[in-house]
Amino acid sequence: MEIINGTLCISHAELTGRIITTANLKALVRKGQVKQVVKGGNGRQAWYAVDSFALKWRTEVYKRYPDAKEQAESRVFMDTVEPDGAAFDFFQSYTLSDGRHLPEDKVLEYASNAAIMNAFRRCWDAHVSKRQRSGKRTTLAKEFWARAAAALPRLADRFPHSLPNNSKYASSG
User: Fold this and answer.
1) Residues 48-65: pLDDT tens digits?
2) Which end of the chain is more exposed for a tag (fewer CB within 10 A), N or C?
3) What are the counts of helices (DSSP H) followed by strands (DSSP E) for the chain?
4) What pLDDT does residue 168 have?
């Protein structure tokens, strides 16, 4: 699942693997009953607008993927997070006032916090740059941080962190 041009979309592989046959999907697209947002081929994956499906198929999609919209919205952030080697080295070599080093779990947590915040900064910068080039208004920072905070629980599996899950606290800095 992915959000393309503000539309929740499902890939050909996700659809044909468990929900609908390829022949049936092609027939629905040909008849104009399903909107194909991105055409497949040459290594690209085909994407279909979930809301364009009849209720029967849409219900099946949401039954198989109950948190589809939240997952798609957080994917932008998840795909942007990269481990931050410089932060990891910094926290690993950091010395406390009594001469001890930080415990390994804290080093990992703090480095993950830095990696996630760097990803959020890259996402925000890319958003602002794209909107300025197109002459459109940017999303309010408040809305951006709300989406970012909503993505944090999904990031915790790959990057253990201690960032707040509440956008109220995330945007106050």
Assistant:
1) 998 899 888 888 888 888
2) C
3) 8, 4
4) 57
Are 37 and 5 within 8 A, CB to CB?
A: yes
- Measured distance CA(48)–CA(118) in Å, rounded: 31
CA distance 41 to 43: 5
* DSSP line for 105-144: HHHHHHHHHHHHHHHHHHHHHHHHHHHHHHTPPPPPHHHH
Task: Look at residues 122, 125, 52, 55 and name the one whose alpha carbon lies nearest to residue 82.
Answer: 122
Q: List C-alpha distances in Å: 87 to 84, 105, 113, 135.
A: 5, 14, 9, 36
DSSP one-letter code for 73: H
Q: What are phi and psi of 7, to 5 degrees?
A: -115, 130
Strand (E) or helix (H) holding 8: strand 7-11
pLDDT reported for residue 166: 65
